[in-house]
Amino acid sequence: MAISSPAEPVFAVSILYGRKARHDLFDDFLARRHIEDIAARAAAGGDVEITEYDAREFDPAALLDELRTPAMFSSVRMLLLNEAQRVLSPPAGERATFEPFIKALLAYCQAPGPGRLILIARALEVNRGAPRTAFGPAARLLSAAAKASALFSCVPPYKSRLPAVLSRRAAAQGVKLNTEAAGTLVSAVGTDQNALQQEMEKLIASAGPTGKIRTADIAALVADRAGGDVFELADAVLERDFPKALKLLNALRLMPATRSGALIIAGLAGSFRRALAAAKLIDGGTAPAVAAEKIGVPQFVRQAFVRRLAGWDPSLLSTLLSRALQCDAEIKTGSLQENVALETFLSDACARGHTKSPLVGRWIYEV
Fold it and tell me: For residue 8, is it within any domain?
């Protein structure tokens, strides 16, 4: 990992924590941001060498040895210990196993070597916003990390607080997102932080000269997400991944915006036509990136689209489009139940068992 920020003091052992609950509350997006920030502050304008361990199956002595060993090809050696709740809050019967390791970490914090350690504890008891443990040595380590500002919460914000959180993130990027619009975004996307951040990045990139994200922009994004999901289904078909395609189809049919089978097939047919147009351009000597631009592939998905073009043959795509139009005819005429027509189409398309239908000409302009 290359880091350009200047080095700042970083405590020898940082702790990222989630809250133990019926469903453990730990946000991977927040964890990633904390890790990136710690690495940036520790880097001295160079590279960070990261090694990951898993507390469910690791050798404490080996981790400690690596922590004390200078990095050979980077500025900083950083170790991540995942599932660290196992060592910070172990069952009573396992405390003797981890006590020497925790005491060694406490000693390392007093006289740190070249490496830095991040303990990632997905599920700790949290009281008044601070993690707690009944394991004495680990409690002392938590206290030391807290005094050094090396405790980082990965507990996701409550849904009611998310609009304000998103507004602050947008403001940090120089873009204004009012809480009403942010609330619309949460309602549309859900509370998953990774998904929200992806959509935020799209909105910020398209904010324009006003530097504002409006509720109307988010409404347009919701429509694009529905279309984007259909495009993802088309990609699964082109990759011949039937289990993934079937899962995406079932998800689309639960969404009000894409519940209609005819609408799903229309989106698939449009995606196949776009791929066919690009494949024909490439066959004629056009560079893939130029072909993607010419047919209007959005910038934020263009790179992924270009990567897939290598496996798309015009003849195959033409036959696949015909089969999609046949499925549309089956749905509109009622010759097959909608779910049967859609699932049969996916099965045929992923298995490359395409068939052409004389009905295609009748329906080609109705898709």
Answer: no
Residue-range definition of the domain harbouring residue 64: 13-153
User: What is the number of domains present in the chain?
Assistant: 3
Q: In angstroms, rounded to a whole number, what is the distance separating the alpha carbons of residues 257 and 265?
A: 13
β-strands 130-132, 115-127 pairing: antiparallel
Examine the fold and report which residue of 130, 153, 176 is the final residue of a domain before the chain moves on: 153
Determine what percent of the chain falls in helix, strand and coil, rounding each to the nearest 5: 60, 15, 30
CATH number, residue 172: 1.10.8.60
- CB burial string 333-345: b at 16+ within 10 A, e below: eeebebeebbbeb
Other CB atoms within 10 Å distance of the CB of residue 80: 19
Number of residues written out for the chain: 367
Please list the residues that pair with 120 across neighbouring strands.
16
Asked if residue 4 belongs to a domain, the reply is no
Using a cut of 0.90, tell me whether the model's pTM lies above it: no
Same-domain status, 84 and 56: yes
Q: What is the CATH number of the domain that holds 136?
A: 3.40.50.300
pLDDT, tens only, 32-77? 889 989 988 887 667 888 899 999 999 999 999 999 998 877 778 8
Note whether residue 119 is domain-resident: yes
Tell whether 336 is covered by a domain.
yes
Q: What is the DSSP string of 85-136?
A: HHHHS--GGGHHHHHHHHHHHHHHHHS--SEEEEEEEEEEEEETTEEE-S-H
Cβ proximity of 110 and 160 under 8 Å = no
CA 296 – CA 305 distance, rounded (Å): 11
* C-beta atoms surrounding 226 within 10 Å: 17
Counting other chains too, the contacts that 63-72 makes at CB distance below 8 Å and 24 or more residues apart are 63/117, 64/101, 64/104, 64/108, 66/115, 67/108, 67/113, 67/115, 67/117, 68/108, 68/113, 68/114, 68/115, 69/113, 69/114, 69/115, 70/114, 71/114, 71/115
